Amino acid sequence: MVWPFSSSDSRSSENHGSDPLKDLDPGLREFLEKESPVKYKTAEAPSLAPQITASPNKSTQNKSEVPAQASSYSNGVSTTTAPAQSLHSDGRYAHLWSTYRPLSEIENATKTDQEKLLDVLNGFKERKAQIGRAALENCAIEQWAVTDCYNSGKIMDRMRLCHAENRDFSRCYNMQARFLKALGYLSTYDRPPEIDEQIQMHADSLYHQMLEREKAVEEAKAAGLPIPTFPNLMTASGTPSTSPTQPRAVIDPQKEQPLPGDLEELKPKIKEQIRHRLKGLSPEEREIEERALQMEMAAGDTIGKQLGQLFEETGKAKRLRREQGKETVGDKISSLFGW
Hints:
Elements: H1 10-18, H2 26-35, H3 44-74, H4 94-97, H5 103-109, H6 113-138, H7 140-152, H8 155-159, H9 163-182, H10 193-223, H11 261-264, H12 268-278, H13 283-323, H14 329-336
């Protein structure tokens, strides 16, 4: 039986067969597409197939372009090189790095003269504070011994306030600080942390070498053997020797000893303070303390040169503003006081 309302158009029948929801209301069609468990393929699906099949070709083309660009960087096509901060040494992003300025450089360019002066002074103060922290790190074992004595030590030791442990810790802290100063820990405040760590470790090794020397001298005295002599701890390896050709000069603690040349040129009041610091020290400790004082003087000279350079730059900037007619109120006030 033939349906009387059937269309003779074959294309229309094909469309109905491929899309049975074509003639429905758009709202009803949307509802059926959401709620019906059977999903019908629409007529647009075949038309999308060529686009889908063509897309892998584009992706493969893009993938082929990326290695070509990378190879161009590796072959040295880029005429500029990236700085050390860049993670890519082949020159990519060189147009961005060409205008890069480190944060420290930007901050220094915008600092006032007062802020630059405070940076120099605070840097020196911070370096002195770091000496104390480094000395405490090197004396961690002695500090732990003091704490352990107070917590779980013998009753007699606690009644004496752990005198022996506190003495060892105090001597370790003072000598470690002297070694750090003598090795130039105060010289500058903008060097890499690795250098500071090397100085700290070397100071700790020198302190333990000094303890070994003292132990060797005590053992020699107890055994009635010749007292071994050692070269300067700061410049030699510390190998003991009993040869009479290398005697150490005996220093009388009660007699006033001359200071090194650069310390002898100081004012009498300062020399009196230095002699007070050197009083009662052993010959080896005296050498280390004198070296530490010399390095403190060198660090002070460095700070003085930095401040002098800063004042000179400030004076040039003031003169330039005065010549250009842009003198500020602060420049006028400072000129009245001769700054």
